[in-house]
Amino acid sequence: MSSRLSEIFKDEKLVNRIKTKLPYLFQLAELESSRAGKIGMEVGSLRERILIALLIYKFGEANVEIRAITEPEVDVWLFGNPISIKTITGKSLGGVKLIWTVDAQKAAEFRRYYVPSCDILLVRINWGGLGGFYYIPLEAQRKLLEEIGRERYIKLPKPGTNPRGVEISKEALNALVDDGLSDYIEIRWEKKEIDYNAYKRWVEYWGED
């Protein structure tokens, strides 16, 4: 499985496409999910679709499967193997969620029993600066968890706060992307002038016979 996802990073033409097209497509996703200048939560789903479309473009629709999700980590299957898709925004790596929960007991229980179950495709968005597109194989995740332990690998929300979930710690995430098994494409996140109208295509549909 690991070798199939790593093919993306060895395909020079595709790497160049990712560098040029991903910022543009993610900017479109932000425009499409914005209301009164504020980006809505649905932007995450749009980004996920963009990355799944990349997998379909590279590997073919027959090899990319979206099933009913029964595992919290899994977003898509490639050649029958599960993949987790994660996107974050910021100047540094951090804030990658493993599970969304506001229940402190569930969070603690999750850390006690968590074992990585799939490869990760991660995008770090950093508008006006450098970010990246990362592939973190399952093998690297399990190896690091064994090496540093759950307390250092998993970050629980602080008590008394309004948490949004359990995260991979910054220490763990930086170690994972630096692992020799992982792959990385550096991306410069520059916005373009886009003439975008959220209603145009829907108006055109209304006008069709």
Would you identify the regions where 5 or more consecutive residues have pLDDT less than 50? none
The CATH topology annotation reads as: ECO RV Endonuclease, Chain A
Helix-and-strand structural type: alpha+beta
**Mind telling me the C-alpha Rg?**
18 Å
Most strands sheet: 6 strands, mixed
Q: Report the total helices.
A: 8
N-C termini distance = 47 Å
Approximately how much helix is present in the residues? Answer: 40-55%
- CATH classification, class level: Alpha Beta
Encode the helix/strand succession as letters.
HHEEHEEEEHEEHHEEHEH
Beta content comes to: 15-25%
Tell the overall outline: globular
Tally the beta strands: 11
Strand order within the widest beta sheet: 3-4-5-7-8-11
Domains, number = 1
CATH architecture: 3-Layer(aba) Sandwich
Mean pLDDT: 91
